[in-house]
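Standup notes, protein team

Yesterday: finished cleaning the Rubripirellula tenax set.
Today: Oxaloacetate decarboxylase, gamma chain structure.
Blockers: none.

Input for Oxaloacetate decarboxylase, gamma chain:
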Amino acid sequence: MSQCFSLVFGQIASPGFRVGEVSYSVALVGESVYARGFSIAVAGLAIVFAALLLLTMFIATMPRLAALLDRYCPEIEHGGPPSRPESKAKEDDAVLAAIGFVLHSELKNYENQTKPTEDR
């Protein structure tokens, strides 16, 4: 660690800059990062693997957590199955046929208006 500290914070005369009493060596910092590239890559892979492992474990325990939560906060029972809204039209088939006829008529009308005209 002390060798790295001396390389980075520069008791070695190298091209860099000086702030106060400490000189920073830009070139040596760049070289040390490139030299440690494999270990930095492995550390990054390990961090990502650990995060994905924790996420997988959390997802795997969700059913148990939901069962535990259900003990303390049970689901509210509603009155029964959801009711279907009653139709105001007595003859649904006739209404649907009328809607279909209007849609068919409008579609034919639209197709006739958008047909390309032939130049003679």
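Follow-up from PR in the comments: Residues 37-72 form the longest helix (36 residues).
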